[in-house]
Amino acid sequence: MSGASALPDELWRRILEIGIESSNFTYKDLCCLSITCTRLNRLSSDDSLWSSLFSTDFPQYHINQHPSSSSSKSLYKIRYEKVREQKLLAHRRAVLRIQSEINEHSRRIREMELRSAEEKEKMKNTVAELLNLRKIRQASVALNVWQPEVVRGRQKQMVEQCNVPIDNRIHAIEMELKLCKQQILGFEKALRVEKKRMQTAKEKLASVEYHPLRDFNLTVSPVDEHDMRGKRSKHMIKGNLEKM
What we know:
The chain is mainly α and 244 residues long. The chain has 9 helices and no strands. The chain folds into 2 domains: 2-57 and 220-242, no CATH class; 86-210. The longest helix is centred in the middle third of the chain and has 71 residues, at 72-142.
């Protein structure tokens, strides 16, 4: 702090004023300065600095609307807490909205999977019936040629058990099978789209939960989890704000 000691208070105060006016200085910067030494603690608590910072960060509010007995620093803290609470409430609403979207996507996916499974079971039964009808048609054709009586009896029994015209029924089954395949393809495509949407919603939720104040109108820089000095500074700044 030998360099800082060489500068007069007026120059330091002007440096801080220029920083705030150019929007390069934030409340965090003032709080960081206040924990460096006694002199900068005193200078960074200057009422005019916090008044300028209040006007910069909360232009929609006027500091002269508050009681004159309160310091600008105290008013800044009050307004900061209110805006922060509003942002936290907005964040909770956003989280609930995204969670609701995920639940809806999950419901649709379960419904599509169920309908797809039902359609696959229907197609399986349709294929089995189609194979059986083709066997009956083959047996019907085989009756026109000579065969051992035992074989001929079985084929005749198969043909007699079928109560509908074979060719017509086969045609109807083939159309039904084609429709089943189209339905299954449609469900699979819709499932891919719905799962992609749910994954997007989950990623959005993870992002919002990890950065609850990302859209806060004050500049908040994320702290590196592996930077212990950054963590210590964060706790010191928090303590400084609580002492305001």
